[in-house]
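Researcher: I need the complex structure. Ligand is zinc ion. Inputs:
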Amino acid sequence: MHAWPASEVPALPGKGRDLRIHDTATGGRVTLAPGPVARIYVCGITPYDATHMGHAATYNAFDLVQRVWLDTKRQVHYVQNVTDVDDPLLERAIRDGVDWVGLAERETALFREDMTALRMLPPQHYIGAVEAIPGIVPLVERLRDSGAAYELEGDVYFSVDADPHFGQVSNYTTELMRHLSAERGGDPDRPGKKNPLDPMLWMAAREGEPSWDGASLGAGRPGWHIECVAIALDHLGMGFDVQGGGSDLIFPHHEMGASHAQTLTGEFPMAKAYVHAGMVALDGEKMSKSRGNLVFVSKLRRDGVDPAAIRLALLSHRYRDDWEWTDQVLQDAVERLGRWRAAVSRPDGPSADALVEELREALSDDLDTPTALAAVDRWAALQAAEGGTDDSAPGLASRAVDALLGVAL
Ligand code: 5CA
Ligand code: ZN
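Model: Output:
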C-alpha cells in the first residue's frame, strides 16, 4: 500500500537528546540508544470507520518518538500496518450492506488524509494484512511444524506455553489475561484449546467470508497478531527499538505478537521497548468505534478547524495519560495556536536558543508535551510583553515547534 506524503522536518542547530521512555514490559523508563537507523513498528488502524481523536492521539505519540530520534540526527525506519481484513471490518460491512474491500479502501484513504493534515510522518512501509498473507502462511506453517501451534477443527492456534517469555510484555495475571482475551477478539471458552489464552493464527475459511490460499493450512485468513508479526519481521527484523500502540493493545495483541516472534526466531525480546499511549475518552467512556462515541479528525477539518489546533489539543496531554476530549480542550488549543503564531510573525524577539533546549529536554523525558507546550507559552508571552532584538528568534522558534512538535506555525 502507499502511505501518505511526508511534511518536511526542519533541522535544528545542535543535537537532541536520547529518548527516555516508559516501557510496558519492564514497567519503568528505558533510555533508547538506537543505531544510526532507529526502527519502530506502530500498529495501524482497522479501517471500518474514520480516524477519531483517540487514534490521532496514539499516532501523535509515535510521531513524537520519531521527531526526537530525527533530532539526534538518526534516520528512522518506520513500519505500520492496516488491518484490512478482520472480524470488526467484515461485521461492519455486513451491517451497512457494503463491500468490505471498498469500505477498507475508503477509510484507509481518509486516514491518509487525516495523517497528512496533522503532519504525522508517514511510514516507509505501509502494509495491509491482505497483502501480507503470502508471508504469513509460511510463518504459521513453521510454528505448527515445530509444535508451537496446533490445529483445532481446521483452525490453527498458537500455543502460548511454547514461549518461556509469555506474559512478560503485559505482566498481567492469568485472570486478567483471560478476561481481556474474551473482550478483545480471543475465544478463551472454545472447547479443545490447550490453553484458553491460545490465540488463533489461521482461521479456516468460513461460509460467506473472504478466504485466501493457505498452502498446507488450507483456505482461510490470518489471525490478528501474526499479521503484525509477519510485517514487523519482514521489514524490521527482531530486536527493533519500539513497538507502539494504544494501551488497549498491551494484551492480547502485543503480548501475543512478541510470543509469536520470539518462538519463531528463538530470539528475545522482539522489541527493546513496548510503548503504549493512554486512552482518549468522550463523555466518560473510551472513544471507540464499537461504542460510537466519536469525534472525528475529518469532521473537525470539514468544520474548518485548523489541523495545527487539533494537533496542539493532542499535545496538551501527556501521551501515557488517559484523558477526556472536550470542546474546551480544542478551544484552548485554538487560542494557544493564535498566541504562538502572533509571536513568531514578528521580525525579531527574545532569543529562542534556550527554548530549543527546553523542548528537547521535555520531549526526551518520556515525551513530556505539557512541559514542552509551557516552554513555548513562556517564550510567546515574553515576546508579547517585551519583545526582543534577536532577528533569528521567531524563525528558530517556529522551526523548533515544527520539527519537534509537528505543528506548523
Ligand atoms: N488494527 C489494530 C492494530 S494492529 C487496531 O487496534 N486498530 S484500531 O483502529 O482499533 O486502533 C488503532 C490504534 O488506535 C491502536 O493503537 C489503538 O490502541 C488506538 N486507539 C483506539 N482507540 C483509542 C482511544 N480511544 N484512545 C487512544 N488510542 C486509541
Ligand atoms: Zn498490530
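Model: Summary of the prediction. The two ends are 31 Å apart (CA to CA).
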